[in-house]
């Protein structure tokens, strides 16, 4: 029963524990969507039932101390708007791939949830990617959309002619750029 002072479970105890876990039969959904099945459910608990206190679902702080706080209801609302931008303005459908080459700004998480909501495949990329890295990812993933910041847009533009699948380019920033859709304006 004990080995070097550590209590160990007997085989019969392990099997008994395993059997007790297997006795709990949870019905698994045929389709699961984190955005609608978890976030929207928490939003409902927060909003209507009052069973969940209004704690932030998302809380982001940058180096300068600027904060962004979203409740579950706000995150759900904004992610639905972002999902509409991806589906309508960018023309993406379930199964299409989108590459996000962004620093971890609030829009990164918003787009991640929007992709979950719509079934669009979110391909994250670090903001340290070079133009050659971006081109490789565009070609390998066959992404139809790329999302980046205004500072990284020139690197993307330098390789766009090499990507035959890319249909839309979305920029996260305050400025505008020829041939790019602006996420903040569309939201």
From TrEMBL:
Domain of life: Eukaryota
Keywords in alphabetical order: ATP-binding, Fatty acid metabolism, Ligase, Lipid metabolism, Nucleotide-binding
The keyword DNA repair belongs to this UniProt entry's keyword annotation: no
InterPro entries in alphabetical order: AMP-dep_synth/lig_dom, ANL_N_sf, Mitochondrial_ACSM
First-tier enzyme category under EC: ligase
Domain AMP-dependent synthetase/ligase, first and last residues per copy: 48-172
CC terms in the record's Gene Ontology section: mitochondrial matrix
Ranges that cross the membrane: none
Annotated GO biological process: acyl-CoA metabolic process; fatty acid biosynthetic process
An annotated Gene Ontology molecular function: fatty-acyl-CoA synthase activity
This enzyme's EC code(s): 6.2.1.2
Reactions performed catalytically: a medium-chain fatty acid + ATP + CoA = a medium-chain fatty acyl-CoA + AMP + diphosphate
Pfam families (UniProt xref): AMP-binding (PF00501)
SUPFAM superfamilies: Acetyl-CoA synthetase-like (SSF56801)
Family: Belongs to the ATP-dependent AMP-binding enzyme family.
Designated name of the protein: medium-chain acyl-CoA ligase
Classification of source organism: Eukaryota, Metazoa, Chordata, Craniata, Vertebrata
